[in-house]
Here is the input.
Amino acid sequence: AQKITQTQPGMFVQEKEAVTLDCTYDTSDPSYGLFWYKQPSSGEMIFLIYQGSYDQQNATEGRYSLNFQKARKSANLVISASQLGDSAMYFCAMRQNFGNEKLTFGTGTRLTIIP
Amino acid sequence: ETGVTQSPTHLIKTRGQQVTLRCSSQSGHNTVSWYQQALGQGPQFIFQYYREEENGRGNFPPRFSGLQFPNYSSELNVNALELDDSALYLCASSVKTDENTEAFFGQGTRLTVV
Here is the structure.
């Protein structure tokens, strides 16, 4: 069984500062993918970044980077130069390879950017 | 815009009634998954359809059922609604390959059961 743990229910960050959102995972699958999604109050889940379990380098997408530490089973999201529009819920998720497309989500972190 | 649309956006139903939620997948995507997101929680996997066949199911009772049509649009049906069924229902479409690919989510349907 797969499990995602997000231990920060809420975070407040000053605008333009960097922020790290924590995510740890548990799986017995040797091949898997890790995802981060942003969910604004409108409800839609917006894909941010993906990391494959065999990827040697940490994934980056613009201001988003994923700090992947496989031995520690952690996949933290780093947002650089935060903006007011970054205020939202953030979910870490996992999907096993070679199976169905089921995503297992954590409980999320509510990020609030302070002007 | 993800190209995935869900209808309706909001819905209020009475306990015991039946409801049908709809999802139009992104063009070319042959896989659709449905998730239930209760208030303050992460989404929970309900089931997935691949080429019109159920391809995995989460821990939900049989009164949650689905369909996928030849054009890859999809329906989620819930019978005998209970108060705890109140949630945001999300559908996600993707292309099934051997490697992980991004799933594109719709904006969700907010169901309230009274």
